[in-house]
Write a structure and sequence with these properties.
about 240 residues; alpha+beta; 7 helices; VASH1
Length: about 240
């Protein structure tokens, strides 16, 4: 009974954060705030707090991740980690999108914002990380995108004095879903064992990391930036423009 109450409290807190993100309007014209992810965690949390204090200002996916980090920082019973998706749309244009994966109460879900509702928040109902990733893959296919690469970040520390967030801990090609499932299971094993030493060793050796196959013409046309479309104004790449 006590464990169930604990899980219910966790899910309630997560839903509150998701509802807060849903209350924001998506910004089709580019980022409003500093979206440099290489800053110290404390600065990202400060940016998230600033964004949260101006709920009427539109935001994009990275800004949404900062808000979620800030709002969940005190909830030490949940694990947060970035999920980045590289996809190819119907016009063969490479797109990038970022959400924040979350694990708590033995379930997985996600925090995020997007112009496409299916590519933002995910309820805490997935038994495995692979199930959550498969749901995102299906959602992408529903808007005419093919997921090429998935990048998972290292769990974000609840210690505000921690340095930078590791956004690219595990990078895997989506071409072989059995491989995605295998590495997602390895990530989960490290997550539940919660041993800092485990995270110092990569799940996939650097020499074996998959490289996206993008034609020279596409690489020249499309800059590799998060949440940026091919147009002159940054926009959410999660749906065809």
């Amino acid at each position: 009974m006590k464990e169930k109450q604990c899980h219910d409290d966790t899910f309630s807190r997560i839903r509150h954060i998701q509802e807060t993100l849903q209350s924001f309007v998506y910004n089709p014209n580019g980022a409003t705030y500093d979206v440099n992810k290489k800053r110290p965690l404390s600065e990202l949390l400060d940016t998230g707090k600033l964004i949260g204090s101006h709920p009427t200002k539109p935001i994009q996916c990275v800004e949404g991740a900062f808000v979620a980090l800030h709002m969940s920082q005190q909830y030490t019973g949940i694990h947060r980690f970035s999920l980045s998706f590289q996809s190819l749309d119907e016009a063969s244009v490479v797109r990038h999108h970022l959400v924040l994966g979350v694990y708590g109460g033995d379930k997985y879900g996600a925090f995020g914002i997007s112009r496409c509702p299916a590519l933002m928040n995910k309820p805490m109902q997935f038994d495995t990380l692979a199930d959550l990733l498969a749901d995102f893959k299906q959602s992408y296919e529903g808007v005419g995108h093919k997921v090429q690469m998935i990048t998972i970040g290292r769990p974000v520390a609840h210690d505000t004095t921690a340095e930078q967030v590791v956004w690219n801990y595990l990078r895997v090609s989506a071409s072989d879903w059995a491989v995605v499932t295998k590495h997602a299971a390895s990530f989960h094993d490290r997550l539940v064992r919660d041993s800092p030493q485990l995270w110092d060793t990569p799940i996939i050796p650097a020499a074996e990391e998959p490289q996206p196959r993008v034609s020279r013409s596409l690489a020249q046309k499309q800059p590799d930036r998060r949440c940026v479309s091919m147009g002159s104004a940054p926009a959410d790449p999660s749906v065809p423009q």
